[in-house]
Design goal:
Blueprint lengths: L16 H11 L2 H11 L4 E8 L17 H4 L4 E5 L2 H6 L9 E6 L1
Antiparallel strand pairs: 1-3, 2-3
Amino acid sequence: MPLKIVHNFDASFTLEPQAQESLFQLLTSEAFLNQICQQLQCEKVEFTELLFQPVPYSLTTTKGMPTEFEKYHQSEEYAIINVPPNFMFTAKIFKPSRLCAIYQRL
């Protein structure tokens, strides 16, 4: 089976205000923040309110993310996590099907 090369992938998306508010509440809940801190072995994290849709690997997106977010991938100050599917479902976000959130380590 041959590989399909993706030259362009539109990673733009918009969330309904109510869905975004619901998702942000889940991503900033005390229990979830504590879980992230435990995984990252740090004392505190803060949600930056930055979300992106993962993108297929290409020559211009070698990290699987839009290029404007690569600076967070390369920084020790930030952590990129996959938004849990149950959060997406609870917030009634079905498109895009996957999102990543950026947190700052404090």
